[in-house]
Amino acid sequence: MKVLLASCASLPTGDGDDDALVAALADIGVDASWSVWGSGETADLVVLRSTWDYPERRDEFLAWCASVPALANPAAVVPWNTDKTYMLDLARSGVPVVPTVLAEPGFTDWPTGEFVIKPTIGAGSRGALRVDPGDFSTAAAHLASLGGPALVQPYQTAVDAVGETALVFFGGQYSHAFTKGAMLTKDAEYDESGLYIVERLSGAHPTGPQRRLAEDALDAAARHLGLHRTDFLYARVDLVAGAEGEPLLLELELVEPSLGFRQTDPAAPLRFASAVRSTLSRL
């Protein structure tokens, strides 16, 4: 069995977080290697990993995903989850999300407090801007500079103190969690590839309410796509605390998220490898 871990030309073997995966897969008889997406290489299964240049080439990326005979996560997931308006779909299905509105150039209904503007098509926090209360001229200029629609969300101030909690699932089953420190800060730095903001990460132990929300979000996404959550080889559910401390969904990452292997137990790559093998067995 041959598996390709798909990356991009700037990060041909990922960002280092996935370094243990090739050996973990080899341990259970799966031949895995890295490949830049669109290269023409073929395998029994292609697993999307650090394909982080896709926002600038999204049409090409979607066409390539659709052409891959066996893709994880499934190709049907990619158009939906690479457009952040999926948050509106999840909100309509009853998932508690950070309040989110869609903004086009000319938008004027800005939040009264601090808020965030992020492009609907984007990765690695590129194009996201944290805006001071009342600074609507900066907000309008940034929205216009994006050249397309964006999401506007009130900034959840608890992030500055406790960060985001990312819950990771393999094959629909909870694996581990990690905390991401606030990223939209004045001293935020991009890695040398320029594809993502360098994150401050550490291990985490999610609460029961966080686990329930994460699973509800996965189930809602699966229903929307006509799938079952076990069809997701991997998923990362990013949660923040709301004004009353309640968990809220910030993002649901089903295409190319970092999975925090360096922030959790050494068995996590083995769990991922078993989930890959399970996916292969169903092909």
Automatic annotation (TrEMBL):
ATP-grasp domain mapped to chain residues: 87-281
Keyword terms, alphabetized: ATP-binding, Nucleotide-binding
Entry keyword annotation includes Protein transport: no
A GO molecular-function annotation: metal ion binding
Domain of life: Bacteria
Protein known as: ATP-grasp domain-containing protein
Organism: Saccharothrix variisporea
